[in-house]
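User: quick one, sequence for these tokens?
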């Protein structure tokens, strides 16, 4: 297993997809969390390998890409109901 390339703060922000809406990523107590759209529940992300994290409740994988200036600018998410990864682009930073 390879460590992530950024501190968790480099992944934090709002990422958007025209069809699926927003994913809001936050961090607390050295853990990365996601929130899907208007859903108020938060889900912990567990580091899997390199810049890939797993959201275990829904079995979604987050592959962070387009990394520069200390932050990611895109995340490809493998959602359980889609045959291919869905790309979300960063729209806001904290």
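Assistant:
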């Amino acid at each position: 297993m390879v460590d992530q390339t950024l501190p968790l703060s480099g992944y934090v922000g709002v990422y958007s997809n025209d069809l699926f809406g927003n994913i809001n990523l936050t961090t607390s107590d050295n853990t990365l969390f996601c929130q899907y759209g208007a859903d108020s529940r938060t889900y912990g992300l567990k580091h899997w390998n390199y810049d890939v994290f797993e959201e275990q409740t829904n079995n979604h994988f987050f592959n962070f890409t387009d990394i520069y200036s200390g932050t990611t600018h895109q995340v490809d998410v493998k959602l359980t109901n889609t045959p291919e990864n869905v790309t979300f682009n960063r729209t806001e930073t904290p």
